[in-house]
From TrEMBL:
One record GO biological process: reciprocal meiotic recombination
Native source species: Talaromyces pinophilus (Penicillium pinophilum)
Full protein name: DNA topoisomerase (ATP-hydrolyzing)
Record domain Topoisomerase 6 subunit A/Spo11 TOPRIM: where: 169-214, 240-351
InterPro entries (UniProt xref): Spo11/TopoVI_A (IPR002815), Spo11/TopoVI_A_N (IPR013049), Spo11/TopoVI_A_sf (IPR036078), TOPRIM_Topo6A/Spo11 (IPR034136), WH-like_DNA-bd_sf (IPR036388)
Family label: Belongs to the TOP6A family.
Classification lineage: Eukaryota, Fungi, Dikarya, Ascomycota, Pezizomycotina
């Protein structure tokens, strides 16, 4: 009997993968000494920035390959305890995927990890296996019935109608305590808009949501939503990122705009290519000196930690977005300035400027609209 039962409609690529895996196992068990094996493609480790659909404004982080796939095979009992352990982990993840598809259930990477945390060891092990399986088959994780638990939040001038006719009204939510407080109206200098946060490094769900809005705004359609009717806006929408003035803030912004190296092969469905940098820059605090007096001056700037220095060096050396010939020379210069001044800043420092953070955003948005 097929691993994926006939009454379950599975993605053809997923079905073919599991059918081939089942056949290879059955052939192996016919031998006197069976050594079942699972072969996965490893995601490329070299990256480049490319144009999407020939549009120079739509650039994204993509994988760089020489046309050949890097394969890794795990067998049982394997050539080492590590290989035996990795085979067991991969097989367990595959079995949970099969079970989810057969029963038409949705699971998360977190639930897979907690199926046997003692065996997996860390969540990162599960994450890597799931991503490698999806990359090997050539599908996204939803085809494996694996979904992400979104941690992002959104509020603003938008209503979303689902297939079940449920309306999600974001205009009435007060999620961001300072920015969506009744003292700060989303219809200020910025005009009507949407505020989105991924609470740090964004999860896949949040990135997909931002990408969806970007697609609707600029392409007037979305491959994700079929038969979507889009009415042109009288003014072109703009996308801005407000992040901390440190290496993580800039890395988060880059993840939204270009994609991440971990999922560079899927950047076309995750990026927001027209994202602009609102702040926070070092010059917003240090150079322009445009803040009111702050009692504790040491709070304004923070020295880089050894981890910050290491991360900045890695970003400049390994991520093509920040290279000398990359698309974001301003971002690269900001990272280099951080290193030179041994300084980083947090967005909270803008609360000390005239009018607080809200006033700073109003002035910044107004200057950018000129």
């Amino acid at each position: 009997m097929d691993l994926l039962q006939s009454h379950i409609i599975a993605n053809p690529l997923v079905r073919q993968f599991f059918d081939r895996l089942q056949l290879s196992f059955l052939n192996e068990f016919d031998k006197d000494v069976a050594q079942p094996a699972i072969t996965l493609k490893k995601r490329p480790s070299h990256f480049q920035v490319t144009s999407h659909d020939g549009d120079p404004e739509e650039r994204l982080l993509s994988t760089e390959t020489d046309g050949s796939d890097r394969l890794i095979t795990y067998s049982w009992p394997g050539k080492s305890p590590y290989e035996a352990w990795k085979f067991t982990c991969v097989l367990r993840v595959l079995s949970l995927i099969i079970e989810a598809i057969q029963e038409n259930l949705l699971i998360t990477k977190r639930s897979i990890y907690y199926d046997n945390p003692g065996m997996f060891g860390t969540q990162a092990v599960v994450d890597a296996i799931v991503d490698d399986i999806a990359y090997t088959i050539g599908v996204d994780r939803t085809a494996l019935h694996i979904i992400s638990v979104g941690k992002g939040l959104a509020a603003g001038a938008v209503r979303i109608k689902t297939k079940s006719d449920t309306v999600l009204d974001m205009t009435a939510e007060a999620i961001f305590r300072r920015l969506v407080h009744n003292k700060y109206n989303l219809e200020s200098a910025a005009g009507k808009g949407i505020l989105i946060t991924g609470k740090g490094y964004p999860d896949i769900c949040t990135r997909e949501f931002v990408h969806l809005i970007s697609d609707i705004a600029f392409r007037r359609h979305s491959p994700t939503l079929q038969n979507l009717e889009v009415f042109p806006s009288p003014t072109p929408p703009r996308f801005f990122a407000l992040v901390d003035g440190d290496c993580d803030g800039i890395a988060i912004m880059s993840t939204y705009k270009y994609g991440s190296m971990a999922h560079a092969h899927a950047s076309t469905s995750l990026n927001a290519p027209r994202l602009e940098w609102l702040g926070t820059r070092l010059e917003d605090v240090i150079i322009k000196q445009n803040r009111t007096e702050v009692e504790d001056e040491d709070w304004v700037t923070i020295s880089l930690s050894p981890r910050d220095v290491k991360k900045i060096r890695s970003m400049l050396a390994k991520n093509p977005v920040f290279r000398e010939d990359g698309p974001e020379l301003e971002w690269r210069a900001e990272l280099q300035t951080m290193m030179m001044l041994n300084t980083k800043i947090e967005t909270e420092v803008l609360y000390g400027t005239e009018g607080g953070l809200e006033g700073w955003i109003d002035r910044k948005m107004e200057s950018l609209s000129l």
